[in-house]
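Quick look at the format.
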Amino acid sequence: MSPRIEGWLQQRWYGGTPAGPGLRMLAGLYALAAKGSRSRSAQCLPVPVVVIGNFTVGGTGKTPLVIAIATGLAAQGYQPGIVSRGYGRKSKRPLRIEVDTPVAECGDEPRLIFERTGLPVFVDADRVAASERAITAGCDLIIADDGLQHRRLHRDVEIEVVDGERGYGNGLLLPAGPLRERPRRCDMRVVNGGAEVPAGDWKMRLILGEALSLQDPAQHRPVTDFAGHPVHAVAGIGNPRRFFKALASAGLNLTPVPFPDHHKFQRSDFPDDSRCVLMTEKDAVKCRGLGLANAWAVPVVAELPAEFFPSLLSRLRKP
């Protein structure tokens, strides 16, 4: 999707501009198609399944939450396997991500999850088949990334992630609004950012980590080290404004450059001068071979309440 079209839609989804009759008609057709896909029966697996996703299109902080939950459950003795569709990848073949798997073959989000967790990540449009391969590989728990709309996979725990600032936007279905489906009750609801969290929901904050050099990841610097110098900030994620806002809050003087979610970066997307470039980790996995001399990835860590994991574990251990 071009930045111009994306901006036009965002203004109608979140900016207060009404969606016209054409978009509403298309939303009605989308609802009919989605209803048909939900009629399929779910397949149960011999291990617990945790599904993490959102009802809106992108930009809620789902990937950091997947990483946090996967590492947290691994620390509790589980052997999680993560399954993902691998949105935007070139290949359609099912695969397990290895150290040398190109990001173009597996997708940027699965690659980032693999690098951050070190856990088995399986990419396949058929999440049931991917889960079965994960179980065969020795995994005793499945985490389905972005799987709320994938009804063929039975789930033991559903976790919704919602943007605490943007919410559900205008509350309309695609393409008139940002909703993939009408919001429904899930077992747990995680709210990323925002001022207040409704009772029963879980508050999540994304904390900036130290910046890592794209040329040499062993080099790392606190983000505050970049204050006082011009910074070219790049984000090709669902909600670039959140990344830019976090950098600005750290005192950085930045030029924000947003790109569409899952953008396929080229060298021409970056300045030719020596300006420092800061980008998200999701973007960095696609930019390491572009020869950027002064580019840094800024990781984020999902911070959750202390009671979150005991609550999740109690749901997983229910007979």
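Next, a different chain entirely:
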Amino acid sequence: MNRDQISNAKRVVIKIGSSTLTGKAGERLDKKNVDAIVEVVATLRSRGSEVVLVSSGAIATGLAPLGLHTRPTDLATQQAAASVGQGLLISHYSQSLARHSLLSSQVLLTIDDFTREEHYANAQRTLFKLIELDVVPIINENDSVGVQEIRFGDNDRLAALVAYLIGADLLVLVSDIDALYDAPPSTPGAARVSQVENVAELQDIQIGGVGSSGVGSGGMVTKIDAARIATSVGITMLLTSLEKLSVALDGDDEGTIFKTSVVQKPASSHEDIKPFVSKP
């Protein structure tokens, strides 16, 4: 898929990160940013695209109501924050989507949903039915109860697995960094990488870790991992910021597009997807 074909993507998975939704650690959910991503979803739906949203932000959203100012390091407090924050997060998504006459649903997944045959079939069947019913599924990891899921670490990989699971045409990662750069973006002279023909080409680029917001768990490394999964099974990936998302989805030269040269390979069984679940 080239840039000029992005606007024609039929089935799109969009992942938005915690730092974009909540800003600095300890700040509340930024409802304007939730509304902004919903505007993009509504636009895609109006032109005939099916959209699945993978949203981080449960733990970060739960910090302020619990009186916390930084992401906790102990598992129990992370789970408590996720439990509080997930309800607040999905509530605002539902209200915002309803203003566009769109119905949403909450889907919480764990690693087991990709590695156990019965769980896999159930997750795939549910998502296909929701899409068929014109619902916008909002997916997150089940952080409030899953020990391994929090250690698994990020929703970039989850989004890539979901894209494979449902046979998406396009995976979009929305970050507080607007693209991949050939050096850390703060470095003088760092240049945006407009297009990546092959993820293997990135071995000489300095890939940064977790961002400065203090609320996310991913970083550019996890986004490259997501690109490896998506492009290896024939799914194009776009990396950009919320501010540039709309124009990038219209085909403008914004963000970074990760191209694929292989034929799309929908995951027909849990055995097909299992090799991509483990960390590299």
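The CA atoms of residues 152 and 178 lie 25 Å apart.

See the schema section for token definitions.
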